[in-house]
Design a protein that fits this description.
Radius of gyration of chain B: 29 Å
Number of strands of chain A: 2
Largest sheet of chain B: 10 strands, mixed
Helix content of chain A: 25-40%
Structural class of chain B: alpha+beta
Number of strands of chain B: 17
Order of helices and strands of chain A: HHHHHHHHHEHEHHHH
Shape of chain B: elongated
CATH superfamily of one domain in chain A: Cytochrome c-like domain
Number of helices of chain B: 8
Order of helices and strands of chain B: HHHHHEEEEEEEEEEEHHEEEEEHE
Strand content of chain B: 25-35%
CATH topology of one domain in chain A: Cytochrome Bc1 Complex, Chain D, domain 2
Helix content of chain B: 25-40%
Strand order of the largest sheet of chain A: 1-2
Oligomer: heterodimer
Strand content of chain A: under 5%
Chain lengths: 383, 366
């Protein structure tokens, strides 16, 4: 295999993370799970003009779960980004949108997006602030064809209008503020509390079995440079040998090339993270593989050559793919399950805000870990 | 004003006024403190002088009021300016009273004070912001540009337009040292269009018919300028982040659409209409540019430096020749230009950049 060697330095770098459990304010009714970042990360990056604030995150959380944003009032962001499925859906091409027509691609997971650039499978959205407009208005997704009326509707609801003001200052809700609040909430969707993470941080009693350790070593050598680092993605775009032919022009199967219009980007798609991969089936941009076993089978013996096939998959004198024998594949599978972050998948502070009848608004103040966010060191603005 | 200095100031004032106005022929003989009587002619000259200053003050007052509308000033500055004008009015009223009581020294003192005050106010207004009108008058070659009217391109096509729109952004004035002064909130949507539904809206939301060829900027920093720059399109800082809003930037103007959102870009320019096909029929063409690669900057140098401050008006008249868009592109061979056609977009963006030429620069007093 002609690939760069992956990092084998494991279990050596025990870097204290910024969100380690600390004391919640004494008057807090309950202590929500502390915001924990992956090893090596000390802050949640955010653009200078949209820093994370408890009010902004709370508003974004409510907006994310509100069907009022959609054209028919029945579909929210969460409809196709369900927390239990790592903010994706179990069907390949979902029909959960307002039109009931199947989408062209599998709903991507929303994990550790604070460190991602180029969102969607083809990277068409440059940042979280710009991301939400497309699904919001797409006729097969949330189908909101009247953004002005939607904002007017939100402005008419005094409690919602108040939350906008709390987050962004005086004035009626604007589209820009709505996009910013959604971006803030999505930046807090950090997954770093899996069994792997606990072991990585050297927490007492956190162990990986020898089989799982073997799987990790294999991931670090055979699945890099794509599924690299603590995020288990290089956040780049690759052609992993799914198809021999691709569309042209505005055809979605052109992949990354549809956005950059460059020949070499034809058939390339964003590397998804391996975090929570065991609960985010089906796999690939179109959800063509139902199971992890199917996916590994593809890399072992199903890679199809094409002009833009990633060179990491080329092998001297052999068909393209990744060399893994049955025992190795079994170890890799075992390891991938250690990346399941049960807290991330069930953390109520990521979920729909509890309904509340008090004058403060339709959601409770006890939202995401505000204190945790406040405790984080000041994030460096994105360049 | 301190009363103990009135006499010495009176002497100085008389000298100053007589020298500058030359109306007291005998002043050298009589001396400044001895002016028991003035001729009718001299008295009339004093009255004229007061009237002239009053006219000055009225003009300045109008400028101050105009600036308050331009919102180039803070509330505090506005109050201070209004107070200065009020002081002037009082001084001149006092001068008239003193004239009636034949206190010539007193008149001269008040006039001297008022003149000083007027000069200070003028100097202040000259350091404060002025206004710019940038006119980009659409033409097609020698003819005025209009919708639904046939034009012949250099390549022999017959075209007629249903819509022409573009973002004119980031207007900057160039100083003599080559640096530029960027004007704030500089995102302007220029267009010639018929009424149209806002794309994708379910209920009838209509953008009205509009012809917009002029940008008016208040609060242009005072200075001497040798040229102007502006861009066609939206700069990456704002184009890459749809949540950022400035000037007239907004996604609900039909200058953004789902197909362009996948590229995270506004539509920079839209040129739509019909062309005559080979068999004499009509077929539509629709050209759009967008993405950071299509951002273009236009630079024009003035024939002579211009001055901008609150007492001057600067009007820059550009000619925007739509025929330039058709010098290399033809709707016959390229009826559609959109996000997925980078090469044609680049050609069209270059054409938009080259369509502007400087026709006139006007810099009169206000």
């Amino acid at each position: 295999m002609s690939r760069g060697s992956g990092s084998l330095v494991l279990g050596l770098l025990w870097i204290a993370c910024g969100g380690s459990p600390g004391g919640a304010p004494p008057d807090a009714p309950e202590q929500p799970p502390a915001l924990v970042l992956p090893v090596g990360f000390s802050s949640l990056p955010a653009p200078e003009d949209n820093p994370l604030t408890p009010e902004g995150v709370a508003l974004g959380r409510w907006l994310f779960h509100s069907p009022r944003l959609s054209g028919n009032g029945q579909v929210s962001c969460a409809s196709c980004h369900a927390q239990a499925h790592a903010f994706s859906v179990p069907e390949a091409l979902t029909t959960r949108g307002v039109s009931g027509r199947p989408l062209v691609r599998h709903a991507p997971t929303l994990i550790n997006l604070a460190w991602a650039e180029g969102l969607f499978w083809d990277g068409g959205a440059r940042n979280l602030e710009s991301l939400s407009l497309a699904p919001l208005t797409h006729p097969d997704e949330m189908g909101q064809s009247n953004l002005a009326a939607m904002l007017e509707d939100l402005a008419q609801d005094a409690s919602v209008a108040r939350q906008f003001e709390a987050a962004f200052g005086d004035g009626p809700p604007t589209l820009g503020h709505l996009l910013r609040a959604l971006a803030q909430y999505q930046r807090t969707l950090v997954s770093a509390r899996s069994r792997y993470d606990a072991w990585r941080r050297g927490e007492p009693g956190a162990l990986l079995t020898a089989h799982e350790r073997r799987g990790l070593d294999l991931v670090r050598t055979r699945c890099t440079p794509c599924h690299d680092g603590e995020l288990f993605t290089d956040n780049a775009f690759h052609n992993n040998g799914l198809d021999a032919r691709f569309g042209e022009g505005e055809d979605e199967s052109r992949g990354r090339g549809r956005v950059t219009l460059r020949e070499e980007d034809t058939g390339r798609y964003k590397t998804p993270t391996l975090r929570n991969v065991a609960v985010s089936a089906p796999y690939m941009h179109d959800g063509r593989f139902a199971t992890l076993e199917d996916t590994l089978r593809h890399y072992r013996q199903g890679v199809v050559p094409s002009p833009t096939l990633d060179t990491a998959l080329l092998r001297e004198g052999e068909a393209a793919g990744i060399a893994l024998n049955d025992a190795e594949a079994s170890a890799v599978l075992a390891f991938l399950h250690t990346l399941t972050d049960a807290t991330f998948l069930s953390d109520a502070t990521f979920g729909p805000p509890p309904m509340s009848e008090d004058a403060d608004g339709p959601w409770s103040r006890a939202g995401p870990d505000f204190a945790g966010i406040r405790r984080l060191p000041v994030a460096r603005p994105r360049p | 004003m301190p009363q103990n200095s009135v006499l010495s100031r009176a002497a100085r004032a008389l000298l100053l006024v007589s020298l500058s106005l030359g109306f007291l022929n005998a002043c050298g003989d009589n001396g400044p403190s001895e002016s028991p009587s003035l001729s009718a002619e001299e008295r009339q000259q004093l009255e004229q002088r007061i009237a002239a200053l009053e006219a000055d003050v009225t003009r300045l007052q109008a400028q101050v009021a105009q600036q308050q509308q331009d919102q180039g000033r803070t509330e505090q500055e506005n109050t201070a300016l209004a107070a200065q004008v009020e002081t002037l009015r009082t001084q001149l009223a006092e001068a008239r009273e003193l004239l009636d009581s034949q206190d010539w020294d007193g008149v001269l003192v008040r006039l001297d004070e008022a003149r000083g005050e007027v000069e200070r106010l003028k100097a202040l207004l000259q350091t404060t912001e002025g206004r710019l009108s940038l006119v980009a008058a659409l033409r097609f070659g020698d003819a005025p540009f209009a919708l639904d009217q046939p034009f012949t391109t250099a390549r022999g096509d017959t075209v007629q337009f249903s819509e022409l729109r573009y973002w004119l952004t980031n207007v900057k004035l160039r100083k003599q040292d080559g640096t530029t002064v960027a004007l704030a909130h500089s995102y302007h949507l220029m267009d010639v269009m018929k009424a149209q539904d806002v794309e994708g809206t379910a209920s009838p939301t209509v953008l009205p018919a509009r012809r917009r060829e002029q940008v008016d900027v208040a609060a242009v920093p005072a200075g001497t300028y040798t040229g102007i720059e502006f861009s066609v399109g939206v700069d990456p800082a704002y184009n890459d982040d749809m949540s950022r809003q400035a000037g007239e930037l907004h996604v609900l103007t039909n200058m953004a659409s789902i197909s362009w959102m996948w590229f995270t870009s506004y539509i920079f320019t839209k040129t739509k209409g019909q062309y005559v096909t080979a068999d004499g029929g009509a077929a539509p063409f629709a050209w759009e540019t967008g993405t950071n690669a299509d951002y273009r900057t236009v630079s024009q140098t003035f024939a002579a430096p211009v001055t901008v401050h609150s007492q001057k008006q600067l009007t820059v008249r550009l000619r925007a020749d739509v025929a330039a868009l058709f010098s290399t592109l033809s709707p016959r061979t390229t009826p559609t230009i959109n996000a997925s056609d980078a090469a044609s977009r680049s050609t069209l963006s270059n054409a938009f950049q080259s369509m502007f030429s400087l026709e006139a620069v006007e810099n009169p007093d206000r």
